User: Fold these one by one.
Assistant:
Number 1:
Amino acid sequence: MTNFAPTEPLIQKGEEHLSLSRSGTLQPPSRKRRDALSQTVLFIVLAAGSIVMIIPFLWMVMTSFDWGARLQLSFPPRLWPQDPSTKTYEAAFTNIPMAKYIWNSFLVSAGVILVSAVSALLSGYALSKIRFRGANIVLLLALSTMMIPFEMTMIPQYLLFSGVGLIDTYWAFYLPAMNYAFGTFLAKAFIDQLPSSLREAGVIDGASELSVFWRIYAPLCAPIVATMVILLFLGVWNDMLWPLLALKSSDKYTIQIGLAMFTYNNGLNQQPSIIMAATAVSLIPVVLVYLFLQRYIIESIALTGIKQ
Amino acid sequence: MSPRKRLLTRNDLTGYLFNAPLIAGVAAFAVYPMAAALYMSFRQTEGSVVSGAWVGLSNYSYVLEDSQFWKALGNTFYMGVLSVLLGIAISFIMASLINSLKWNLGKNFFKGVYFLPNVVSAVATSLLFSFLFYPGKEGLLNFMLGWLGLDPVGWFTDPRYSRLSIVLMSLWGAVGYNTIIFLAGLQSVPRDLHEAAEVDGAGSFKRWLHITIPYLRPIFFFMLVMGTIGGMKRFTDVWLLGGTAGNPSGSLMTAVLYIYRNAFLASQMGVATAASYLLFIIILALTAILLLLNRKKGGPD
């Protein structure tokens, strides 16, 4: 049986070669032509699909430069602006405090990323390299809370922050960032692959646990930290639900809630080109991150399958 | 006492210290809120005061008897199921097409283009599509319908179409994400399986149907689970496009919007937390059903 199995496909392969040559010289070229044809069809279908994906972006950018569409959409819809101008962008920045909102979004993102990454690396390192009682319980608890949707916890979390007077401050973002169980999971899996001998050598040399972690392991974790930073940035920059609850005064708004509130108060479908200009500006950071780190993002998503 | 029996070793202490931020975060922002929400769901709580009379299950029965809740659940479910199924089908086909493309540069280009909408926020997507799906003849989609001789459709303003429009809009954002995951899966299908089938005379479509799809079954289920969970939490786009009433005529009222309204507009924290627990139970049940289905169909392999 074991001797026979590998020869079976070989015989069949040989038969195929035979039938190929038996059916004449036409077979290989026609197959090639069929391949070329199917590749062309594939390409056309995929290109059509990408046009569908791109047109909304294209329309947004073109409309954002159209002073003629500052009050209402023009008819017929056009890709090239009726009255090309950058005044729409000036209007966007004066009507909506865009610069302030974007700065606020950067502050919130930076703080959340810092707190989350440090918390995830510290716990991931300890769970991977230090043998301590209850390590499994900590890991299990953290991972099981990943299943809890934020929508479940938002009401008590809001009441908690308003109870201690931290609503309308960025502490409402920085403190929950400590709970980044997914990052802990990523960091632990990554550090598991680093040799434990590094730690043992450091400990023998009399280095403290913290300096072993910070000087030896943390620098080696750069790739996984990069993954966390990208995923966190995209998540925090784009979030609107928690900012809607946690931020009350408009000068603290992040870009998402700022844009949303402006639209909410003025009504939908007003000032097309100005809203599109503001929207386009709000997309610049994430699109830049995407363009430069596309490979990282796609790899990390294919790897983890989870976005947050 | 021998050192082994000491209460805490040095390693224990360092371990806890390193895990302190995580443990504090999990305790304060996962465990506590879950417990507090459960507690509140049994109390008559109004405003931001976590107290009030014990009312037993009356918050739950209020929610369960509220036709608004069922309508919201129905809308959420309708939009969730439609966008998950369409999203999986489209992105699997797209991933298969990209995977069979032999031109590597093109492969990477299409991957990049399909994924791009995924980094766009729900707010930006909603604002953009509110114009693309503008109800008048000026909207791009209605203009294109005009070429076919069709009358303008009130995409987000007609309750007959609003939910479908939300689904179409979210497909734009979600297809690329699923395509990336499918592509990773497609590359893991062992080549010798395909070669063996090719030798047996199976065409590429047959191989796709009988080898690729069964092989990727775990990924399909993973996406069903993740998509269902995500779909049940729909809020930002419907809030922005339909307001807190889920307009037009409540067709965009979703379960999370219902919770938000009760908690932050009506200050009915007890009712809102009861509704959030009901939603949580529904999500858990759906996940469990999907996982069970997966295991049952999986059989011995």
Note: Residues 1-27 of chain A have pLDDT under 50 and may be disordered.
Number 2:
Amino acid sequence: MDNDYFSIDAILAENQKIQCTFKVDIPDMGHLGGGSDRDIKALAKVPVPIWLAYIILYSDWADFTIPAPFGPRVRNALKAEPRSVKLSGLVGAGGLWYGFGKMIMDILGDEQAEQMSDVLTKTFRGRLLEVIDQAQHFAALGPSGGGGPSGDTAQSFREGLDGTERELFALAQESTKRSKRWHEGNDKARR
Amino acid sequence: MALPQPLRTSVTPLELELIASEQLVEIVPLISMEKTAFISGAYGPLRPPAKCRIPLWMATNLKLKKKCHIVPPEWLSVAEFLQERLNRETSQPEFSKLPFRFAEIAKVILDVASDDIQNADKIRSLLKDLREARQAKSRDGLQKLDHSELSLPNLCSMEINEIRPFFVQAMGVLTQLVKEPVADARPDGDY
């Protein structure tokens, strides 16, 4: 998720598309839109991945709109209850909602970026506690852990986790499992 | 050899136990031994029934061969001490001061020399309660997670090791998401 050229997280996060409205005509690039047009006309809306969109915006050939995963509807839902939103539904399973948001934040101007960063951090903080709680609970259950504690809510929360949150979940679960195993082990024979 | 992800930023509990075993404990030896040089220092001579201070690893070794009795350290031998700590733990929001490696030392001694401790069961349950109370507090500390710093005073070695991987990762993510008020020289995406 850094601006590191080699960061795999950054590459995956940049794979998301955003809608750009082109300001000028671009001959012979119609295939980017996925349609059968030969050229891109000015004022045409084309979905473009962020890694490409960055250059296009920098060279001032197009403008873009904030994409749906960060639109007002999602923001309101997050403001109300961060844990109930399924982030993986917004960017596809295995997607990186936070990474995507960061890329957009980098492109935006200052004031909008402040808002974005606010939304992102509040959401992250709100969900973090739940992630860790579930991770510690699941460490106790073991690999065959069946239905969650309160069944549905917990399970749907886990399904809605974004890529970064999944990593944190795995880390927390691992370390809790290790500690538990050590605490309960009694290997007198080993000594 | 590549370490699995959770081990890259922390150590295993067994390794912590090994490090903790270097601390000196008092024993009542049952055999005689001359002052012997070991890599970490020279210990002995052992003259029963005089008490002697030797490293924990040596004490457990001798104990398993039934060649000594371990005298548990003051904070472990008197149940009242731990009880008082537990009360303090449950009444105050900060962590109470405990010997840095108390979890490892307590476990080793309880495993190997439980007959040398009075009220071993009571001590075990007190330690468990203590651990849970502190875990609950570190969960609250998670709420205050900030991208710049987090200070949890009086946390002990085992606990630090347990929470380090995901705390560090979470702080890393937050650092990415928080917008620094430095204006980048990028054009605004007009939207």
Note: The first strand of chain A starts at residue 17 and ends at 22.
Number 3:
Amino acid sequence: MIPSRNPVSYPRETIGAHLSENEAMLRQLFEHCFDVVFQRVDLSEECLILMVYVDGLIDKNVFASPLFQSWVAEKAGAGGKGAVDYPVLKEHFAVVRPIRNESRVQEIVESVLRAELAVFVDGEPEAILLETSGMEHRGVEEPANEVAIRGPRESFTETLQINTSLVRRRIQTPHLKLEPVVLGTFSKTRIVIAYVEGEARPDLIGLVKQRLAGIQLDVVLESGYIEELIEDRTFSPFPQMMNTERPDIVTASLMEGRIAIMTDGTPQVLILPITFWTAFQAVEDYYERFIYATLIRWTRFVLFAISLYLPSLYVAITTFHPQLLPTNFLQNITSAREGVPFPGVIEALLMEFLFEGLREAGVRLPKAVGSAVSIVGALVIGEAAVKAGIVSAPMVIIVSLTGIASFAIPRYNMSIPFRILRFPLLLSSGALGLFGIAMGTLLILTHMARLESFGVPYLSPIAPFQPDQIKDVLIRAPRRKINSLKATLAGRPRRR
Amino acid sequence: MRSNLPRLLTAILLLSLLTGCWDRRELNDRLFELASGVDRLEDGKLLLIGQFMVPSTSEEGGGAKKPYLIETGVGKMVSECLLDMQLKLSRRITRGHRNNIYFGEDMAKAGIADLMDSVTRDPDSRLKSDIWVVKGGTALEFMQLSYPLESIPAIGLSKIRHIIGKTTGNSLLEILVEENVEGSGPTLPAVEILYDTKLRKKTLQVYGRAIFNRDQQLAGYLNRMESVYRLWITGETDRIPITADLPNGRGSFNTEVTLLHAKTRTAVNAGRVAIDVYLTGSGVILESQPAIDLRKPDHLREFEDIMNRRIEKDQTEVIRKVQRQFKVDVFHFGKALDRQHPQDWARLKAHWEQSFSDAEVTVHSRVKIKRIGLQGPPPNKP
Amino acid sequence: MKLTNYQLFWLLFSMEAGMTIMLTLGPTFQAARQGAPLAMLLAGAVSLLATYIAAKLSLLYPEDTFVEYVPKIIGQWLGKTLVFVYLLLWIAVGGIVLREYADFVHMALFDKTPLWAIILFMLIVILYAVHGGIHIVARCSEIIGPIVVFNIILFRIFSLKDLHLDRLLPLLPSDGWMPVLSGSAPAASYMSESVMIVMLIAFIGNKKKTLSSGLWGVGFAAIVLLNVIIDTMMMLGSTVPAMLQYPVYSISQYISVMEFVQNLDIFLVVGMSFTVFVKIGLYLFMTSYGTAQLFGIRNWRRVLWAVSMLVLAVALFPRNADETQVVFPLFWKNIVFPIFLFAVPFLLWMIGSARKRMKRPVRPHA
């Protein structure tokens, strides 16, 4: 483990009784931090009250509350001597806001940064900490990336409390456990491990906690930071966790015995363990009727195969095995390719590269410009290049078909490995034809067979075959059947 | 770290494998042979003719260029001819799409036994091909014919074969099987070049069947009706048009018989083979000249009877012709005998040609007329 | 490394089906002619028997592999020698299968690509799987097996219209049963390779249904083979396939659906690659794991590298297709098949069960 760089050094362990000393120390710690406010309340000459907080993080309404004001007045009136009068404050205030006193400097500093209000009273070696968090945050909006025609329109936000509440509202049982962990020596990001007790395997929960405990990070900005550090195998194109911004997906996964990791500051929640087949399960499969869901799932399988294989198949067939093409078809393709200067593989690689470029440009560019890029791209590549005889028309069709197919995989992060693997497959098909594709397929298959996500084989329940779990993989079985499946599984240790 | 070395080596190996594109060949470096023909030259050498697809360059073509190219090669063996031909061509000959092979009549007469190997040994050339015998002509002549309907004449012939209800691409396999069956006579479809004197143009027409003897030399032809009668017995066709005449010059009628089925019964009586062929099917009247109302069952029965006698007579003639002229069993009678009387077959198979020629064949036709069309009598003959 | 019975089924099926379909049909037709389907049926029965014996034998010592229990049955030295011979045989057959496969691929797809490239590429892919352990190969076979079956069904449907029922008859050739018997030998000798389960049963978790799933795996492969041979016969008759090197390959060239789906031979090659992957994977695992056990090497994965080098050497050794497809099968059929796939396991089973019955405590050394 790498020790976190540049740890904060505190001049002293606890605060003293002198307010001015404390203030000087804190001012030094918070030097050049203009957002940290030191507010003195000088009601009389002798008694001083100092309030320290981060501007913007706390709810300033607290100053206006009569309770607070009366307490301050009373405190000042007492001449600043004697014990800090907690009972009064607590009695009135704790009803609304948590309150405690603290003498350790580190704790005080961290609390202030965590959006608490610290109140120092001269002569007291303890500070009062008030939780008054009132940070600005985004409200719950429609999911931006995971759109569903039917189903809830809520999505997670950047605020952890809102996210946990969205889940809690859907699972109203004490069995839903939300265990907090703090990660990041600088960011102090709050993370919640969510699971449903009795559904998730205890050893899995233990494994997740153990892996999370092993993480040493300065800053956690996104769940991706955690994902990469706790996944089974980093050197694999396949994601071993799923991320989602939809509370309904998280809820369903939790009820299937999976574990969700929610990170403060990002709407993306991690779900684990997953299998390969998760890539083909969309939320709507469970909202629509089962016949449609099954058919559409098969459509996805086909589209997946297209997105992975089509360009390499085209290259293999045209450059190695033209006898696979029917004669009329062959005539068209040969004519279209006549005069194209590139060999088939190079042409395909070039076009695929261009397509990826267009996609990337489309994602990065501001919305207003994005459409312009796609129009220019379509025009330049689709029309001009073919007209000029640089690229053959069938290749343009192939590449665009592949592109469309790759968008049909419901989970974005699961479509990435296939986009990546398309290129090595293309290369091997260019070298060895269909034999190359077969070998590439075998390599991919073997890799997936070796891969595990938190102890769950990536290809299960197909390989290893678990007949009792197969009902939601190749088909989406009618709900009655799935429910009965759930019932037979209840209380079994090995299930997800 | 120790386990990383093999991985690294593997990665390097895979990459190095990827760089060697040994067998890659672009479409534009290939020349697709769609049909080939073999003729026998006077000196006994072979003339191989290839019909190749020429890709049209983009859209400006406008029919100026012929979409196909014909090239020839000469040699003692087919592969020699192929090499000879390749030396004239800038693109690699690819035979994966060859569906039609033509043998000139001289070639067929000289024997095709030595040609078959070149067709089936090469993994690139496909088993699903049709071999045609060009009746009364050479393959070269035939392949030079242009065919207006299809871009490449060879495709046209395949389509004709499809239209007349034959399976396309099975004649190579069929002759291979027949050649290997004892006593069986190999056959191939035949085409001819037709000069239409009225339209003043040459065109191609499917003729019928070329019959080979056991030495795989051309023995003769069956014309189109004879071929269809033969196919009825072997069960390879699904329709046959029959024209029969009513006695006393009352006129003719035409029936199309479908759902064809044939059964062969064999018997051996004192060394002589007796064969009974039972033909069944259901007919539809396509045309009827006589002023007879077919809605009356009696009339229909008469028609049926006349038609069946006609079928029996024609079929018997076809069989007789084969027995007399070609002396090879092209009707699978030997197979039927093998199945029905294995002991007799074991005794007869050595000289089956003779036994077949001497066999007494009786044809029984039991075709039923199922439909008469839209009217009873002809509309203008009440 | 644990296997399930279901995985055993697919492992055996994939291992049996691929190469056997491709390589044994020609010899079967050569010998049995019209009786080829009967010969294949017989071969299936024989291989089932071999599998039964092998399974029974290793179920005597359910937790031990072949390498471990043979010395327990017939004594340390004899046992170890015998095991060593078996390991050599398995290495040899692994290499030869790899070569046969490469020859076939080379014939079907390539022209200029060197043979070693095909062999090496395949071997690397297999190594990657075997390195993960036998359960990885098993998982792959669980995906591969159903795909292969699906393909066979598809081929069956596509070929329906080209079948001539009359070519199937008569079932028995006119010269009696002898040709059928000799015709069943090539296929039986290939399919009796399922004796390899003596190395696999130790890894199976729940051994209650092992015997039946092993037999089903072999039986299913036999059914598929029977189906293919009948298909071949109905399309080509019984004389043409006897002259062909790969009759099934020729058939797949012939199939055409609506003039659009045609020349399916290439997909056959792909399907073959999948099953050969499983087969050689099994052999590699067995030999390297067995060698490690025999010589007391703790990490079998290190033996794997050596064994795969050996297999590679064997695969590159023969000069032409003749040596791999004629000489070796002859050796396999006439020597290995009767002795090592039948007699030895049978004797071991007899001795082993006699020992068990006598309730003599098995001493570690004798």
Note: DSSP finds 14 helices and two strands in chain C.
